Amino acid sequence: MPTAEPLAPFVERLRALVADAQAIVDLRRYFGIDLPPGAMPFTGSRFEHLAGGGDRPEAADTITATDLIAVQTLSVTVPVPVALDLLEGRLGPRLTDLLRAIPADVDMTYVDATDLAPNSPAQQAWDLLCDQHGVNWVTAGKLLARKRPRLLPVYDRVVRCAVGRPASFWCSMHAGLRADDHALHRELVTSRQAAGLPESVSALRICDVVVWMRHRTDHQETNCALQ
Fold it and tell me: How many domains does the chain have?
C-alpha cells in the first residue's frame, strides 16, 4: 500500500470516537453484554471466536470452511469458486505460503512498518485475494483479519466513510497506534476492559466496532455508501 497521508485528522477522529462514553455502550451492545430480554448481539460478535478463532495455532496458516462462514458474520461472502479454490485447489496453498510469513501473535502497534509495506507478505496476500474474481478489497481484508486479528484490521466502506481515506489504511493505522507512546492502542485496550470483553477481541477489532457502530446508521440514512 502507498505511504500514508498526514496522520493528525485520521488519528484525532479515531481517538475522539474511542474516548467518547458512547463507545463502551456500543461495544456492549455489539457483543451482546447484558442485553435486555429478546435483544440479540450483532452477528459480527462471532467473527473472532467462531470455532476458536482463525488464528488458533492449528489453523492459523490455512483458510478453513469456518473462516469462510466467519466472514459472513460481517456481511460479506467469498464466491463459491474462490472458496473451493481456497479449500481444495491451488489458491489455498499459495495463500498458506504467504500466511506463514505473516506474524500471528503480535499486535499491529508492535510490528515494524515493513510488515505492512507494499512488498510485505501481508500486502501480497491481500493482492492475491483481490485478484480473484468476485473478491473485492472489503472481503479480502476481512478474510485476512480473521486469520491475523491482532495485526490486520477489518476495514469496510462504513469505517472508510467515518474516518476518511488515508492513502494506506494499514500504514496510517499502524502509525496512529504507535503515536504518543502507543496512546491509541492503550485507549483501545482500556475500552475493551471497560466493556467487559475478553482479550481474544483484538484492539484493532475494538476500534473497528466503535467506529462502525457510531457511523452505520448515518451511513445508511445519508446514502454515503459510495463515499
Answer: 1
